[in-house]
Automatic annotation (TrEMBL):
PANTHER family per the UniProt record, alphabetical: BLR4935 PROTEIN (PTHR30203:SF24), OUTER MEMBRANE CATION EFFLUX PROTEIN (PTHR30203)
Full protein name: Transporter
Taxonomic source organism: Arenimonas malthae CC-JY-1
Family per record: Belongs to the outer membrane factor (OMF) (TC 1.B.17) family.
InterPro entries on file: MdtP/NodT-like, OMP_efflux
Source organism superkingdom: Bacteria
Length: 403
């Protein structure tokens, strides 16, 4: 992709859709796999085509005293055209092998696209999370500023120690240092997202317009496993296609036991006139049975390998799905608990502590602890949402929900 075209494309980052669109349109790995799939598809037609015919010319009776290669200057010239014909359905089987291999290449591209889309979604979730974590720290710093102002006023009235204001300043400074670290982490996640999208590490990204949404494709793990079994992962389908190609190749090698036919026609020229014609029929003699048996064994072993790989992949994908599903459910339950219970409680506790501090019923340390508990719960909620979305992206990649 030309740099000017990349520069003209919309900047990704506003939402997940923009990230997916950019990756599918510009990722070089997907372009390479698409080209390979196209190349495999282009091999289908030639695989079942007839061999090229062969033209021959035979010159006889060349005068040694006046040698010439012109047909009119020799005693006889024979013109021949030969064509071999694979028999017993060999052309159709060869085309079937190539077609199944082309299907496998196309499915490899789909599997790679799923994996890359899931990685892009997860990178985008981390990018969004880092931005939101900075926003939470900014709110906490602002609240500490208000608390410092309250402490300063109470100190001016002689009802609070100057230490309260200083503790608020120290806490703000500590949060500002954490904010710097979070900003560095946000830059790191931006570089990670650009890397998945095959962009420069410092390429600009749009700010997320809203929290990302990655819904689980089923309500239960059994439902997700059923989706995997019904729809099938492209990698599983690619293994099945390669096993089918190997089976067709076995049959093709078996039919190599039977001979192919060759047909030829010719014309006999003497001087400058045609004096006769000839028809030729030839038959291949399949003597190399040892080589054929080895080719059969190769095709059989390739089929066994493809089926074994498919079985291993089923087990691996099922395990990954179960793990990701458990992580998504656990993080979702934790997030809902924090949102519905801990956050309201922590906020109410902070507001009560602030009101009590204004009238001198609690000390500044209690107020500071209440703020840290409230904002800590907010960060914990944000971390749980991040983990939930990361796991959901993995589940969707396996079951087919990343489109």
């Amino acid at each position: 992709m030309a740099p000017t075209l990349l520069a003209a494309a919309p900047v990704p980052g506003a939402d997940l859709a923009s990230v997916r669109s950019w990756l599918l349109a510009h990722n070089p790995e997907l372009r390479a796999l698409q080209a390979e799939a196209g190349a495999a598809q282009a091999r289908v037609l030639p695989a079942g085509a007839l061999p090229d015919p062969m033209a021959e010319i035979e010159l006889m009776g060349i005068d040694p005293d006046r040698p010439s290669l012109l047909p009119a200057n020799v005693e006889t010239t024979t013109w021949r055209l030969r064509q071999s014909f694979p028999m017993w359905g060999k052309r159709g089987l060869a085309r079937d092998v190539a077609r199944r291999e082309a299907d496998a290449a196309s499915l490899d591209r789909e599997a790679a696209a799923r994996d890359l889309l899931a990685r892009a979604e997860q990178a985008y979730v981390r990018f969004w999370h880092a931005r939101e974590a900075v926003a939470v720290l900014d709110r906490q710093i602002e609240l500490l500023g208000r608390m410092e102002e309250v402490a300063r006023r109470r100190y001016a009235l002689g009802v609070a120690a100057q230490q309260d204001s200083i503790r608020a300043q120290v806490a703000r400074t500590g949060l500002q240092g954490e904010r710097i670290a979070r900003l560095a982490g946000r830059d790191e996640t931006a570089a990670m997202l650009n890397a998945v999208l095959a962009r420069r590490a410092d390429a600009p990204l749009a700010e997320p317009a809203a929290p990302p949404v990655l819904a689980l494709p089923a309500d239960t793990l059994d439902g997700a496993l059923a989706l995997l079994a019904d729809a099938g992962h492209p990698a599983l389908q690619a293994s099945a296609a390669r096993a089918g190609a190997a089976d067709a190749a076995i049959e093709l090698q078996r039919r190599a036991r039977y001979p192919d036919l060759g047909l030829g026609i010719g014309a006999l020229q003497r001087q400058d006139r045609v004096e006769g014609y000839e028809v030729m029929l030839s038959v291949d003699i399949p003597l190399q049975q040892g080589a054929r048996r080895e080719r059969e064994r190769e095709a059989r072993l390739r089929g066994d390998a493809a089926r074994a790989r498919s079985d291993a992949l089923v087990a691996e994908l099922s395990g990954q799905l179960g793990q990701a599903w458990s992580q998504a459910r656990g993080a979702g339950d934790q997030r809902r608990l924090i949102e519905r219970t801990l956050m309201p409680q922590a906020q109410a506790n902070f507001e009560s502590a602030l009101a009590s501090y204004r009238v001198g019923e609690v000390d500044f340390g209690t107020l500071l602890e209440a703020l840290e508990a409230w904002q800590g719960a907010d960060l914990a909620r944000l971390d749980a949402r991040r983990d939930e979305l990361l796991a959901a992206a993995a589940v969707r990649a396996i079951t087919g929900g990343v489109q």
